[in-house]
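Lecture notes, unit on protein representations.

Consider one protein chain, 281 amino acids long.
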Amino acid sequence: MSGHLTSQKIVRNVGLPLVNQFLAQGYALVRILSALKIKSSTYYNWRHWQPSRQEKRRESLKPYILDVWKTFKFYGYRRIAAYSHLNNDCPKISEYMTLKLMRELGIRSRMQKRYRKPKTVVTVDQKPNLIRHLHDLSGVWQTDITYIQLTNHRWVYLATVLDPEKRKVLGYKIGDTMTAELATSALQMALDKHRKPLIIHSDMGSQYTSAEFNIKCQNYGLKHSYSLKGHPYDNGRMEAFHSILKREEVYLKAYQTLTEVQAAIGWYINFYNRNRISNVA
């Protein structure tokens, strides 16, 4: 039924202006309708048609959906619908209606292909993984470094410290070299602002096996846990955050300088911690 109504709307929106165009050129209405094979009753129905209350509401929702999508182009229909229910000043829209209206508007969640990062090699012996069998991560922080490419194809690096239980970024540092100091600075930022954990978990990268990073852990009484080589899922929630960051921010932008990256990542982390709608596909 809805498909039939949609096709009627398309025919009306095309047919009525065409008839009016020929009328403006001086042709007789009877000849126009005969040439276009349109019944006179159909034409007069078009002229006197008025949108229903449902149709008016649908049309009124489109500008709102478009505004939300322009602000958060990485939001699909589920999160746009969820956003409408979380905002008291906005109309409440179902997922089904949001999906239909987004299709009519010709918009969809905007995702981009990722770029290839350089490969790294672990040269030290495996160190203990203290969280692999833990079900309660409330005393654990996770940390990792990810790559971000500038328009000149040079790399900058983001070190992040995450609370995997609360899914909040606690500290981060961005630099143009991937060093132990970068990793340690992100940890120090988290320690300065939050109650220290029992365990800090990382991969086996040289920044995290360095003396500088481990002395910092020892000074604060932190146990250091390491992912198994070739098992990034041991640090899964940290990896997931960086993946979300790339899809929703990094891959949608073209950064020319380190300063631009710092501003953009700072904005996104604040958004992620405070406003982002999560637990929605």
